[in-house]
Specification:
The protein is an alpha/beta fold and 352 residues long. Helices cover 37% and strands 15% of the residues. The strands form three sheets. Strands 2-8-7-6-5-3-4 form a seven-stranded mixed β-sheet, sandwiched between helices. Helix 6 (109-116) links the parallel strand 3 and strand 4. Helix 4 (58-68) packs parallel to helix 10 (244-253) and helix 5 packs across helix 9 (227-236).
């Protein structure tokens, strides 16, 4: 019998998450995955590579807790924020019975992780103002176990309205967990919701070292929640989720020197992003520049396919979101280094 026929029926029907590397492309300037343009330099001690690593490396947990302003008991480290998302679904949702709620357009891994685990997805789309439809979400709280919100939202860049979030958290008490994905929060740290963790035991925050810290290659993320939620996730997580080299690099990235490096990187990315946004708004093919809160800009061109092709011919690989509901002609541009942004601007200046 074919292995395909042996697979679960749901798996046979799945469409895998189309990551930047899976989509691919041909070019020398990669601005399609919201990666940083650099990572910094790190030292590795190889003397312990013969030993299995700690499940939750204390030096990483303590450093991230100090950075995030929470207690170590409120922190779980995992293989990227994606594993945190999947752990929440596996821990709190029964396959074939339970549901999560998303607000599209948003990060695709919420739905993929749910479907992979046999969990249904309820989609309450964003409003015309690109905010979660809090009234619509509250109406469906009895149907779902987890509500996923992304702030800043990928790909639109919008921040979740705090008053609406508070209303949702109060309505969801004892009914559902509200998960706020803050993968890009370092680019607008004043808008983090982590300060609410002490008041709401149904709030969960997802974080990562992949974006502002420039460490997408080590796959290191964090889940922040009340200690009871963290304890439940620790029952489900793999025995050795964080490799020893990853733990060492993460601890260095979260050191005082590492945080200075990260904040300097953020300042430079935000400067380049503001400059690109100004130039885009002057371009005759640009109809809309979305919220500039992450390390990317979502841009609606007229037409998007033409600009995407022009960038591709110049060796610049971007991310096309035209197939997503409400995002026709939209292209996401990761903010790279100065030379990469100059290459983008050069294409924009031609054939105007």
């Amino acid at each position: 019998m074919s292995p395909t026929l042996l697979a679960r029926a749901k798996v046979q029907q799945l469409t895998p998450y189309q990551s930047a590397r899976r989509i691919g492309g041909q070019g020398h300037i990669w601005l399609n995955a919201n990666e940083a343009a650099d990572s910094g330099k790190f030292n590795l001690d190889c003397e312990r590579l013969n030993r299995y690593p700690e499940c939750q490396p204390p030096q990483v947990i303590q450093a991230y807790a100090a950075y995030a302003g929470v207690s170590p008991e409120q922190v779980l480290v995992s293989r990227g924020g994606d594993e945190g998302i999947e752990l929440l679904i596996r821990t709190f949702c029964e396959p074939g019975e339970d549901r999560i709620l998303i607000s599209s357009p948003t990060y695709g891994m919420y739905a993929i992780s749910a479907e992979t685990n046999g969990v249904h997805v309820v989609d309450v789309p964003l409003t015309a103002e690109r905010q979660p439809d809090f009234d619509g979400i509250i109406e469906r709280l009895d149907e779902v176990k987890l509500v996923f919100l992304c702030s800043p939202n990928n790909p639109t860049g919008d921040l979740v309205n705090r008053d609406g979030l508070l209303r949702l958290l109060n309505a969801a008490r004892g009914r559902a967990l509200v998960v706020v994905d803050e993968a890009y929060i370092e680019f607008c740290p004043e808008h983090s919701q982590a300060g609410l963790l002490g008041d709401y035991d149904n709030l969960v925050i997802i974080r990562t070292l992949s974006k502002a810290f420039g460490l997408a290659g080590i796959r290191c993320g964090f889940t922040l929640a009340n200690p009871e939620v963290i304890g439940l996730l620790l029952k489900v997580i793999a025995p050795y989720p964080v490799a020893e080299p990853v733990a060492q690099i993460a601890a260095q990235a979260l050191s005082e020197q590492g945080l200075v490096l990260m904040r300097n990187r953020v300042d430079e990315i935000n400067r380049l992003k503001d400059e690109l946004a100004r130039r885009l708004l002057q371009h005759q093919q640009v109809r809309e520049v979305f919220a500039p809160n992450g390390n990317y800009l979502l841009v609606r061109f007229s037409p998007g396919s033409d600009m995407f092709a022009r960038m591709s011919r110049a060796g610049i690989i971007l991310r096309d979101f035209a197939s997503r509901p409400g995002l026709s002609d939209c292209i996401r541009i990761t903010i790279g280094n100065r030379a990469e942004m100059d290459a983008v601007l050069n294409v924009l200046q031609k054939e105007q």
